[in-house]
Amino acid sequence: MIAQVIVDVAAYPVDRPFDYAVPDEWQALVEAGCRVKVPFGPRNVLGFITALKEETDVPQGKLKPLSQLLDIEPVLTGEMLQLAQWMTKQTLCFEIDALQVMLPSALRAKYEKTIHLTGKLDELPAELQNLFGNKSSIPYKKVEVAGLLKSLKYSIGQGIVQIKTVVKQQGQVKAVRKLKILDDEVKLQQIAADIPKRAKKQVIVAEWMVDHKGAIFTPEELCQTLDITTAVLNALIEKGAATYIQEEVYRDPFTKNAVKTKPLALTDEQEVALQQILTAMKSELPTTFLLHGITGSGKTEVYLQAIQSALEKGKEAIVLVPEISLTPQMSERFRSRFGELVAVLHSGLSKGEKYDEWRKIQRGEVKVVVGARSAVFAPFTNVGLFILDEEHESTYKQEDSPRYHARDVAIWRSEFHQCPVILGSATPSLESFARAKKQVYTLLTLKKRAMQQSLPTVEIIDMREQLKNGNRSMFSEELAEAIRIRLEKKEQMVLFLNRRGFSSFVLCRDCGTVVQCKNCDISMTYHRSQEKLKCHYCGYEEQVPHECPECQSEHIRFFGTGTQKVESEIYKFFPEARVLRMDVDTTRQKGSHERILDAFGRGEADILLGTQMIAKGLDFPNITLVGVLSADTSLNLPDFRAAERTFQLLTQVSGRAGRHDKPGEVFIQTYTPEHYAIELSKEQDYEPFYVQEMQMRQRFAYPPYYYVVLIQVTHEDVLMAAEYAGKAVDWLRMQLSQNVGIIGPTAASISRVQNRYRYQCLIKYKKEPNLTAILQQLIRMYRTDWVKKGIQLTVDLDPSSI
Ligand code: ADP
Ligand code: ZN
Ligand code: ZN
Predict the structure, then answer these.
(1) 223 a known binding residue?
(2) What domains are defined for the chain?
(3) How far apart are CA 107 and CA 33, in angstroms?
(4) What is the pLDDT of residues 41-52, one digit of tens each?
(5) Which InterPro entries match (predicted)?
(6) pLDDT tens for residues 267-292?
(7) Of 274, 396, 638, 756, which has fewest CB within 10 angstroms of its CB?
(8) pTM, whole model, 2 decimals?
(9) Is residue 548 a known part of a binding site?
(10) Ligand 1 atom at minimal distance to the Cα of residue 300
């Protein structure tokens, strides 16, 4: 028997399977989809069996046997193997990358050895105990470096530790120990009473524990939450108030308070949408629906009832959300409806936790998966429905190889399973809406808010006027007044600082002019080191002007503020305000999103201040004001989607206000109130924006009228990067037809990352049948030759940002 194996050797220029002989003793065990180890050159590498066959062209003497069988049950289904082949063609990636991305990272290959504690820690020689600390596994390297291999060998002989060399499978052993608070109120109270009064901290913690009896936390979480040192915590552990546990229970942050909900009586609009979905489901047609519903129109309830119907048919459902740790409220709604049938996959889970969830899916213990992008690969075998909520979000596109879009994968899988896909959004991507207009997708529309509330009123504030009237602060008079009123009425508000990426631009504070490229209609990017403005599409550059080219004002300068600065401004203007800040700095800790949102939900703050993170998914009844401090930042990104992103963001944040009985009010501050993306966000009406933006896209030949491909070339040496980007462009010009536009090469908008210089070029085309083949040839040239010179080349078909 011959196994056809895709090997994990990404540097190899040719991407194809290799044949290996299956040793007799494994013939009954191997299946396509199993992981194996195979000899490849001088090494043993990981591979996936993609097919089994009887014959091979490899001559007898040259055929090598599999060296190790890692699974006796396949980790990938036949569907996944087919999907991987499709992704390889679709995204021009290595097949191995496509296979790997479908598996939880705990199952992915890493050739590091790890040492696992199998016996008791205190049986180990002291020097090894130190290395372990409180971990249950450590890298082999650590022991090697410490020169303790002899002790290690001895301990292995004693059966206290084991080496795992196969792959790093953190999935099976929990790396973190947790603390379980005693589940006995009386005893806890006893412990609290026995603590000497001068140990104040201990007393407070002990009393807190009474209220949290039986709860499980990591030691770090406890110390953070209670603001105590480990010494205090250890004292309580010694007294028996909490004990360390090996966290074998499936941890899940969202079930804690899930209250069971029942299906709501649908509005007429919801009912019409649902019925169409159910009809498609019944007739087993792989229809793609675009559910376009304004914020608060009850899209989620439609998802929930469609899922329910799939479950009743004995099928499964996969729900994708843009970034689930940012939207705990969303996953809770699925949990509340379907309870234990739901698995939640999100980036906040450790590798091991993700692996647990994945196993539940694989074993069929759950029927619904809610997760971010990669959950689209959930290994269900009888899917009845795919859902992408907020389908316009760029996080659905993976930025590294394989550069797949979750929407495309969901649609592919829906054809395999003969089931519908729902793409939901208040502000669909232009591509999707255009497809719906052409009836490639079926459009479903919700025009009214589900609970009859009206959309919040939106006021656009011209910050140029504020400056003219002598107000140099970041709050317009109108917004400041609105904040004051909310503070008095004890209502809550969200202040949104629009910040994205590293991009910076130069803006005139008198007239709002941002210098644009003459050729591309894209904002020029400011380069501080050279005091220059550059266009990252076509390479055009000019000096930073000292006065505004439009109005000659001198108030033209670099634009951008951080959340911290805003926070201190708020305290300056409104000393009585209580502010919760949510940005990358305050959310580094696992679970901190939920903590901040929970606190806000409990009314512990008046103002939630944040970046993009707070734009989505919040549903709090007491929010009556949303303030957007600077609408311009995303508008001036050097990206052809800048206007679309801005409109989406403004509509999303505005949608946070007045979702329940209290009416909402929104203030959008801007230096360019006349820009259509801002003007039209006032009405929160998608279609007029769509019409305008489509005209722009047509005029400048961008998607969805044209397809774009982004090619990036990087090297440590700037000249090499430029030279090879040039070579790529010259070569492409020769190969591609006249109708294809090739722009560049130019330095990328973030021109250096991790000491590698980045150059890029953009291909625009409408129809180019040979494009894939030509790009594959370019990639082959790169892999066989350029890579040796330290070049890295990436090809991104349909990039989500540029
Ligand atoms: P969307 O996802 O479209 O922004 P949601 O699903 O969050 O909207 O719904 C907004 C609010 O309306 C939620 O509080 C939800 O519980 C409520 N809601 C949705 N559908 C109904 C309905 N049919 N009857 C009553 N309330 C509803
Ligand atoms: Zn000006
Ligand atoms: Zn340009």
Answers:
(1) no
(2) 2-108 (3.40.1440.60), 110-169 (no CATH), 175-248 (no CATH), 268-446 (3.40.50.300), 457-503+560-697 (3.40.50.300), 707-796 (3.30.70.360)
(3) 13
(4) 888 889 999 999
(5) DEAD/DEAH_box_helicase_dom, Helicase_ATP-bd, Helicase_C-like, P-loop_NTPase, PriA, PriA_3primeBD, PriA_3primeBD_sf, PriA_C
(6) 999 999 999 999 999 998 899 999 99
(7) 756
(8) 0.77
(9) yes
(10) 6
